[in-house]
Amino acid sequence: MNVKPILASNCLVFLPSRLLTLLAILTLSVSFSAVGQQPGADGMGDALYPQLGNGGYDVRHYTIGLNYEPELNRIRATTVISAVATHALSRFNLDFYGLTITLLSVNEVAAALDRIGQELIISPAESIAAGEPFSVTVKYSGIPAPVEDPAVPWTKLGWHEYAEGAIATTNEPSGAMNWFPSNNHPLDKATYTFRITVPVGLTAAANGVLTQTIDNGDDTSTYVWQMRDPMSSYLATVVIGDFTVERDDTGPVPIRNYLPRDLSDDAKEALAKTQDMMAWMIDKIGPYPFEAYGVVVVPGFRSALENQTLSTFSPHMLLPSIIMHELVHQWFGNSVSPAGWQDIWLNEGFATYFEWLYAAETTGSPGIESLIPDLSPALKQPPGSVEADALFGISVYYRGALTLSALRAEVGDEVFFDILREYYQRYAYSVASTADFIAAAEDVSGRELDALFDAWLYSEEMPDLPQSPEHTTQ
Length: 474
Ligand SMILES: [Zn+2]
Prior knowledge:
Elements: H1 3-10, H2 16-34, E1 57-69, E2 74-85, E3 92-95, E4 100-106, E5 109-110, E6 112-116, E7 119-123, E8 133-142, E9 158-163, E10 166-170, E11 190-199, E12 203-206, E13 209-215, E14 220-231, E15 238-241, E16 243-248, E17 255-260, H3 265-271, H4 274-285, E18 295-297, E19 304-305, E20 311-313, H5 320-328, E21 336-338, H6 345-363, H7 372-375, H8 394-411, H9 413-427, E22 430-432, H10 434-445, H11 450-458
Parallel strand pairs: 1-11, 18-20, 21-22
Antiparallel strand pairs: 1-2, 2-8, 3-7, 4-5, 4-8, 6-7, 9-10, 11-14, 12-15, 13-14, 16-17, 19-20
Bound molecules: zinc ion (ZN).
């Protein structure tokens, strides 16, 4: 790319023979410098979302500095990405949707930029060698626009204002790119620093732990949050609002909940069970993976979402079963994340299974198997091979959970929980595929289980649940 300006400005002054020589040298040097260099891929090969994520580098850390102006509903932000090239890079992509970019640099040198849809195509002034650490700085502003995604047509995906001054983010699966540029696929986990500036009177929460609150002396405050464990971009969150913070340090993990001032007593009572649920999950699977946990309750928000260390809730969804479901995701989904979006049953099937098991063990309510007659028609969709528009369909949750029930009936209680613990330990802070889970189940049980998983995850007809004397919901 250095070739063009030299020829354009200087070539006319050369004699023809010198020009030919120069052209030969330039051609050679271009061929030489191109050896081993290639553009980073514009996707990570996801079966459902081929454009999500990018190839050629591995992000290690995101620093997101973001200023929210509620009167304009606007953000002004600078995201700095620290990454390492996995091959020699002539250019590479980030995923970013909407918003206006005012500065883009690589290693603090301005870089050329193309935007095609959600792809930021970045050509650094100097190419990047294989294995070389590099940084990308993107400065941008505007009003984030919802991302269209066939998996969640009912949701404003990404950064969204739910009520006056009440901001929450719903990234899963593709929405992160409406508020920060990223390698937007679970395969590339990284640590995060958030520096969120809001007017006095509003509070900003994000993933991880609050390490600093800075009074800027201009009627704004900056909240600094650190997520020091690896996190997929779909689990990153910033939430802004007028909250009270309630802490519970009576159990194994510090819990801090960000709650609206008018939250009902029933909802608070349901949340008070979180430490018991935490202890129950730790007993079943192993230590909680992160430094802290909590929920944030956002007026106008309409669902519940397991953002890493800080689940986001509608005020109307603070029910014990849903509080448990989002907590379980901290192990299954957040620490062990899906290698591809078609592996989503590893998130939702597991969270649903433990939600029902906890209810059965603590309140004696019937097990998940009792649902089969009511749900049968919806359970024909095989949960292991869903399309994007069925990513969060009933079958992923319930037939996914029933797959675990069937496995438990097949191998017995002791081996079943050994399988889950082994699978969790193998892939904690990383990603796993359905094949990885099946391999763990076969390794631990010493049995060939393909037929069981084929029938439950990939066949049109849902099999009958095997009955076993060992299969109880104690
Ligand atoms: Zn879930």
